[in-house]
Amino acid sequence: MLDDDTTFLYDLARNSEELQLIEYLTGAEKPMIRHRAAELLGGLTTGTSPEVQERITRALHRTAKADDSDAVRAAAIDALYLRNEDSLESLIDAVTEGDIDDTPAWMRTERVTDWLESDHAELRLIAAAALGRIGDRAATEPLVGVFDDPDVRVRARAVQSCGQLGDPRCVDALAARLTDGHDQVRREAAAALASIGTESALQALAPAARSDSEAVRRIALGELGRFETLEPLPLLLEGLDDSDELVRRTATRSLLELLANAPSDSSHDVRNEVASAVMSATPPDLVSQLLTILGGNQPDYIRRNATWLLGQVVDSETARLQDAQTTLVEALDDPDDITAKFAMSTLSELEGANLLVRLRRYAERDDISAAARSRAEFVCQKLEGSPSRTAVTNAVEVTYVSDPADYTAKKRERDIESADE
Hints:
CATH architecture of the domain at 268-421: Alpha Horseshoe
Helix content: 55-70%
Strand content: under 5%
Shape: elongated
Distance between the termini: 81 Å
Largest sheet: none
Number of helices: 24
Order of helices and strands: HHHHHHHHHHHHHHHHHHHHHHHH
Radius of gyration: 28 Å
Number of strands: 0
């Protein structure tokens, strides 16, 4: 039990005397003073210079590693967590990556699992995180043993570490965490199962993907795109037909991730199967979800696959055909060249006089690149008949790519031919 003679430290905190607090943290003889100084420094996250903030972080790091009191070390770890999770991550890195002289005695590899039984949640937290990074599957059983830890941070880190270890033996225990009372733990459990990636891991995710809870369904579906096979496709198709819009959007995004994660040697077959399955399932608003995704700030691989998939599902009967056309036309000037070429290929296959008018107006704009103008002109000529040789050349060669693997393969062949010449 801490004494009540640390009130003077609160005055230092109120007066922003951070340097004096650091002195008490690192030099006070009484553990209770060091403990309270650590707590107060954890709350001083604003109002001081970056240099002072860095000194606070370094002092908390040293205390967490070297103080001879479990309670003080725990307070320092909690302070790092409160200040900035990146600071906590750097401590974990220091513990797991430093040489034996740099690693504190209480965190040496042979004793890490012992600290999962500490009375201090913060020490259990560091141990749970460190075990995943150390990478020894012998830690699986001790980690599973703290899946029901009363501290949500410990549970989440233990679950995350099991995902890093990739040990199939913990699939059932991870599946049980999909119904944890905290979103953070549920999310980590779904991610861990996806990392393990076995058939049993997918089967464990299936009930969560069909849960009565919209939040749980979103979490499970959000991880299915990490698989490198088409095994999750039936669950994702169900998700595309979910009653909740956010769940449908999550399923759509995961479907795009699944396409991106397909092995390059089977990408074409994967895309054909996905396109066929999607067309057979007829999701109610897939076009709308793809348009929403394309309207956001997405990485290249998502825009590429969303543009490609939009080209598979949009036709003259599509309810949001005009919106789809507008999005595809604007994508002709996408900063990612492959996305722009997918848009060009898709537009070349669409019909409708309105599209021609839109493309001609687009080609006349002053705010588009020369490449985008050439692509628009090529599509116009393609829709009207056969494009001229000049239009084909200006449209930047690859028009009818069916997927990124095709584009990559064709580009590699041209590069080899150029080198031979």
